[in-house]
Amino acid sequence: MVLNALELENLPRQIEFARLNLTYTIMSKRKLLELVQEGYVSGWDDPRMPTICGLRRRGYTPESIRNFADKIGVAKRDAMTDVALLEHSIREDLNKKAKRVMAVINPLKVVITNYPDGKVEELETINNPEDESMGTRKLPFSKEIYIEQDDFREVPPKKFHRLFPGNEVRLKSAYIIKCNEVIKNDKDEVVELHCTYDPETKSGSGSIRSVKGTIHWVSAQHAVKAEVRLYDRLFLVEDPSSDEEKDFKELLNPHSLEILDNCFIEPELAKAKTGAQFQFMRTGYFCVDPLSTNEKLVFNRTVGLRDSWAKIEKKV
């Protein structure tokens, strides 16, 4: 009305569009402020927050956010966008540029009983199969290694092709090993596996032997200890703001952050700088947190990988 009353020749163009809403989070600045002030999150840059600084700290790249915005476009009506689309965008971006590295976040010790005492090998592995120009690197291999606890089952279910008594698996970029003995503590918990390796099955040696399962590992002698923070969705329901009568804070996910402080990573990661991004093989994409130091390495999970076994296991 004011612009028309001024009788201007060239009126400015006005475009109205709806606010972006994401599932399992909130976009209201007032409500986000409550979470910060009441200590439900560590601050505006908490990796669970839908803020630029929060997304940056979690490991989201500018390219992934731009691609996400291009995919969803601009709408005039309020709509709820699935956060899975944002997660797909960062996976798509990091798949091309992130180095694949060995990291064991829930370690289980393995002793290769027939491997020579004191021997250390340097095994070659590719940095990123999606980009050969990223080259290769050397990994130390020794008699004692760590594998993921989830890669072993004393009594395996069907279609479980990882390690169990009497079964063989390939260690990524290394050898085929066979589980011969399971060591337990007083609580009947598995604490160590004794295995043997086939020296004729070294990766790249041209061995014709093959097994169904391949797992990652780190050398116990050379591994570097690290803290890993597993971030999940902030709320338990898709639309936390839908029930106006209920306090939205009651819908917070109590497991949106899990801190694991007994993780082991390959030695090269000890030199990683703040913000550096990696794919922890078979686990997910991670970045170095700003709080990380030479004395205490801290990695944030940006997003997990799709895990077909997790879906199978839920059905069992």
Give a concise summary:
The protein is built from six helices and 18 strands. It is of the alpha/beta class.
Description:
It is a single chain. With 316 residues, the chain is an alpha/beta fold. The chain has two domains: 16-97 and 225-265 and 272-316, Glutamyl-tRNA Synthetase, domain 2 (Orthogonal Bundle), CATH 1.10.1160; 102-219, Beta Barrel (Ribosomal Protein L25, Chain P), CATH 2.40.240.10. The chain has helices spanning 2-5, 29-37, 52-58, 62-72, 83-97, 308-315, and strands at residues 20-22, 79-81, 99-101, 103-104, 107-112, 121-126, 136-141, 144-148, 168-171, 176-184, 190-198, 214-215, 218-219, 224-231, 257-265, 277-280, 284-288, 297-304. A seven-stranded mixed sheet has the order 3-16-17-18-14-15-4, covered by helices on one side. The longest helix is centred in the N-terminal third of the chain and has 15 residues, at 83-97. The chain is elongated.
List the helices and strands and how they pair.
Layout: H1 2-5, E1 20-22, H2 29-37, H3 52-58, H4 62-72, E2 79-81, H5 83-97, E3 99-101, E4 103-104, E5 107-112, E6 121-126, E7 136-141, E8 144-148, E9 168-171, E10 176-184, E11 190-198, E12 214-215, E13 218-219, E14 224-231, E15 257-265, E16 277-280, E17 284-288, E18 297-304, H6 308-315
Parallel strand pairs: 1-2, 3-16, 5-11, 9-12, 14-18
Antiparallel strand pairs: 4-15, 5-8, 6-7, 8-13, 9-10, 10-11, 14-15, 16-17, 17-18
Cα-based radius of gyration, to the nearest Å: 24 Å
Average pLDDT value?
92
Q: Number of DSSP strands? A: 18
**Helix and strand composition category:** alpha/beta
| Whole-number count of domains | 2
Which of globular, elongated, flat, extended, rod-shaped describes the shape?
elongated
CATH class of the largest domain: Mainly Alpha
What is the name of the CATH superfamily of the largest domain? Glutamyl-trna Synthetase, Domain 2
Low-confidence stretches: none
Tell me the series of helices and strands, N- to C-terminal: HEHHHEHEEEEEEEEEEEEEEEEH
Q: What percent of the residues sit in helical stretches (DSSP H or I)?
A: 10-25%
Sheet having the most strands: 7 strands, mixed
Strand order of the largest sheet: 3-16-17-18-14-15-4
CATH level-3 fold name of the largest domain: Glutamyl-tRNA Synthetase, domain 2
Give the amount of beta strand, in percent.
Answer: 25-35%
Distance between the termini: 66 Å
The CATH architecture category of the largest domain equals Orthogonal Bundle
